[in-house]
UniProtKB/TrEMBL annotation:
GO biological-process terms attached to the record: arginine metabolic process; urea cycle
Catalyzed reaction equations: L-arginine + H2O = urea + L-ornithine
The EC number(s) this enzyme carries: 3.5.3.1
Residues in coiled coil: none
Cofactor comment text: Binds 2 manganese ions per subunit.
Protein name in the entry: Arginase
Cofactor(s) for this UniProt protein: Mn(2+)
Transmembrane segments: none
One CC-aspect GO term: cytoplasm
Keywords: Arginine metabolism, Hydrolase, Manganese, Metal-binding
Binding site for Mn(2+) 2: D232
Domain of life per record: Archaea
Length: 304
């Protein structure tokens, strides 16, 4: 992990039905992200926002996909390619890319930007949802529910280089905190070689035990890891301002200790993203402020 962090905002809401997550990057910045990192000695440079088309000006079903349904497919491709370029450039400059969403479709671009030729990249996906639908299984057509499947090149995404990241093997992909999974993606998860931990696993075994094992899987034989943190991973009582809240998530302390475990892998941590913060649904920006706190824990902040 680099001492210098570059923040990249992606005000993306094309991948979801509910508006508001496009304001997530601004809310997180306003929540004190730079100060949180500065307090632990990390230099934070703001790289600004990547341009995202307005959904009102585009046709969600206009071309780009041979089979199945994926709303704003063409626009998502364009944005994710720009995210890939920005993340790749940040790493080449010796800085750590911290990407702020926006909905979870941006993860397709972040992972591709963090990947390197002839290197294996592990991925940990902290999320209430699997994001494992394909255009053929999705009940909604929303790409934020397909982003992890796209990274792995499942279904119709196999023919699209902007989405499929060959450097990521299913064996090194871990989802942590599942509690809301569609029938079609459940079958795909069960048939895949990824590892998925539900909230029941966390309840039975504890968050530290599950996260520690997840990190072992993601780092096994890989050259670096990407951490994707969807704020709906937390219980809505802790993080009310998210795009798709689901009751029964992790607690405030469970989330912090998970990020503290991530920090222990600082030599392996290559990139990170925060997604699905929706200020319209939030209470006094508390979800964005919590996101800032969790980033600080992931970068090494401790009580003592």
């Amino acid at each position: 992990m680099q001492e210098q962090v570059r923040v990249l905002g992606v005000p993306m809401d094309l991948g979801a039905d509910r508006r508001g997550v496009d304001m997530g990057p601004s809310a997180i910045r306003y929540g004190g992200l730079a100060d949180q990192l500065s307090d632990i000695g990390i230099d934070c440079i703001d790289g600004g926002d990547i341009a995202v088309p307005r959904p009102e000006e585009r046709d969600p079903d206009a071309g780009g996909l041979d089979s199945g349904r994926a709303k704003f497919f063409r626009e998502t491709k364009e944005v994710c390619e720009d995210v890939t370029t920005a993340v790749d450039a940040t790493l080449r400059e010796g800085r750590f890319p911290l990407v702020l969403g926006g909905d979870h479709s941006i993860g397709i671009g972040t992972v591709a930007g963090a990947a390197r030729e002839d290197e294996e990249l592990g991925v940990i996906w902290f999320d209430a949802h699997g994001d494992f639908n394909t255009p053929a299984t999705t009940p909604s057509g929303n790409i934020h529910g397909m982003s992890l499947a796209a990274v792995l090149g499942l279904g119709a995404f196999s023919d699209h280089a902007w989405a499929h990241t060959p450097a990521v093997s299913e064996e090194n992909v871990v989802i942590v905190g599942l509690r809301d999974v569609d029938d079609g993606e459940r079958r795909l998860i069960e048939e895949s070689d990824i590892t998925a931990y539900t909230m029941s696993d966390i309840d039975a075994r504890s968050a530290p035990a599950v996260v520690d094992e997840a990190l072992d899987i993601a780092t096994d034989g890989t050259d670096g890891i990407h951490v994707s943190l969807d704020l709906d991973w937390l219980d809505p009582t802790e993080a009310p301002g998210v795009g798709t809240p689901v009751r029964g998530g992790v607690s405030y302390r469970e989330a912090h200790i998970a990020m503290e475990y991530v920090a222990e892998q600082h030599d392996q941590l290559r990139s990170m993203e925060l997604v699905e913060v929706n200020p319209i649904l939030d209470e006094h920006n508390r979800t964005a402020e919590l996101a800032c706190e969790l980033v600080a824990s992931a970068f090494g902040k401790r009580v003592l």
